[in-house]
Amino acid sequence: MNAEDKRIYKLKAEVLSAAGHPIRLAIIDFLGDGEQCVCDIADHVDAQRSNVSRHLGVLLNAGVVKQRKDGLKMIYSLSTPCILNFMKCVEGVLQVRAKEAAVLLEML
Amino acid sequence: MNAEDKRIYKLKAEVLSAAGHPIRLAIIDFLGDGEQCVCDIADHVDAQRSNVSRHLGVLLNAGVVKQRKDGLKMIYSLSTPCILNFMKCVEGVLQVRAKEAAVLLEML
DNA sequence: ACACTATGTTACTAATCACTCACATAGTAG
DNA sequence: CTACTATGTGAGTGATTAGTAACATAGTGT
Questions:
Q1: A63, B100: Cβ pair inside 8 Å?
Q2: Which of A33, B5, B84, B106 would suit a FRET pair with B48, their CA atoms being 20 to 30 Å apart?
Q3: Per-residue flag: A71 CB under 7 A of strand D
């Protein structure tokens, strides 16, 4: 694995770990229904505004969301809808996990 | 967003952030070609064995990989191949990012 | 100009993570 | 049994991250 590969993995890891936080995941899910302003996002994910603002900054920085100003409000939306697709795969992983847990339970 | 939702987002975040590290991403990519033992993985991703062992523990814990013992060796493989698919989407995000960076460059 | 609202930022603390080194364990081969 | 190999784990350190409170900024309406 050369230095070039490492750079690319680092970039990809940035995107994935941006998505790898409960609040940010909730934000992504919420934005799947359409663009939203910070205050509505904060209400929906049940967290403080400044905290949500931070998380949005992380997502923006990773390129997962984009922003647009509308008067006083800053409107956020998903930069590409495929982000929602890979949640399906994540659910698949969780299903495998759950199945294995069930098998272990049987063994007791 | 109720407590149940939060639990599920936390689980999903666990899977995503398990994938959100350059070395672990390289491991996932490598396992895409087929199962591998720890020592070969360590050689391939160019990191120390104990460190790789740790990262594999994280992936295992998240349910991203599974393990199988073969004599002295512990063989790891992807628990579900769809994990490779969502890399495509990550690449899409990076493309959007690159495009925006190019646009910004034009403006200078 | 003033007060008000939405957002972002600074500074700080607590928590988590990554990495390394040294050691422990399990299996293999002589 | 002994030496060796592959893997995993505890302890420690430095780096990164999450969350909060207080403040700064930008736009709106009177």
A1: yes
A2: B84
A3: yes
pLDDT tens across B11-58, in order?
A: 999 999 999 999 999 999 999 999 999 999 999 999 999 999 999 999
User: What is the rounded CA–CA span in Å between residue A86 and residue B87?
Assistant: 9
CATH architecture of A3-79: Orthogonal Bundle (1.10)
On the question of pLDDT at A62 being above 80, the answer is yes
Plot region of B65 (φ>0 → left; ψ -120 to 50 → alpha; else → beta): beta
Residue A78, C-beta contacts closer than 8 angstroms, at least 6 positions apart: A28, A31, A32, A64, A65, A66, A84
Spatial CA neighbour of A25 closest among A90, A80, A94: A90
Domains of chain B, by residue range, sit at 3-79
Tokens describing residue A12? 């990809």
Assign A96 a pLDDT band (cuts: 50, 70, 90): confident
Q: Give contacts of B58 with chain A, Cβ < 8 Å.
A: none
Whether B23 has its CB under 8 Å from any CB of chain A: the answer is: yes
| pLDDT attached to residue B103 | 83
